[in-house]
């Protein structure tokens, strides 16, 4: 089973990622949309992988939101 999680890199989505992986014994794919938020996304891939994601996608979508 694969689950795609809208991942922000914060505590709540990091806990959700870990819980989903353990609860459903699933492959978790983290997705983060870069919409120009203030928070830096430089370390988000590392955090998601360290928390248990098998893949991480960070999609630059600032052009669509501005």
Kindly describe this structure:
The protein is 39% helix and 29% strand. It has helices spanning 11-24, 44-51, 62-65, and strands at 2-6, 27-34, 55-60. Helix 2 (44-51) links the parallel strand 2 (27-34) and strand 3. It starts with a strand and ends with a helix.
| Order of strands across the main sheet | 1-2-3
String of helices and strands: EHEHEH
Question: What is the CA-atom radius of gyration, in angstroms?
Answer: 12 Å
Q: Would you report the number of β strands? A: 3
As residue ranges, the low-confidence spans are none
What share of residues is helical? 25-40%
| Structural class computed from helices and strand pairing | alpha/beta
Mean pLDDT across residues: 91
Distance separating the two termini: 36 Å
Largest sheet: number of strands, sense, barrel closure:
3 strands, parallel
Helix tally? 3
Please indicate the percent range of residues in DSSP E strands (runs of 2 or more).
25-35%
Q: What's the shape?
A: elongated
């Amino acid at each position: 089973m694969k689950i795609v999680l809208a991942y922000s890199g914060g505590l709540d989505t990091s806990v959700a990622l870990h819980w989903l992986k353990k609860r459903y014994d699933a492959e978790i794919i983290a997705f983060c949309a870069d919409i120009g938020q203030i928070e830096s996304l430089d370390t988000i891939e590392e955090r998601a992988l360290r928390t248990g994601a098998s893949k991480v996608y960070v999609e630059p979508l600032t052009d669509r939101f501005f």
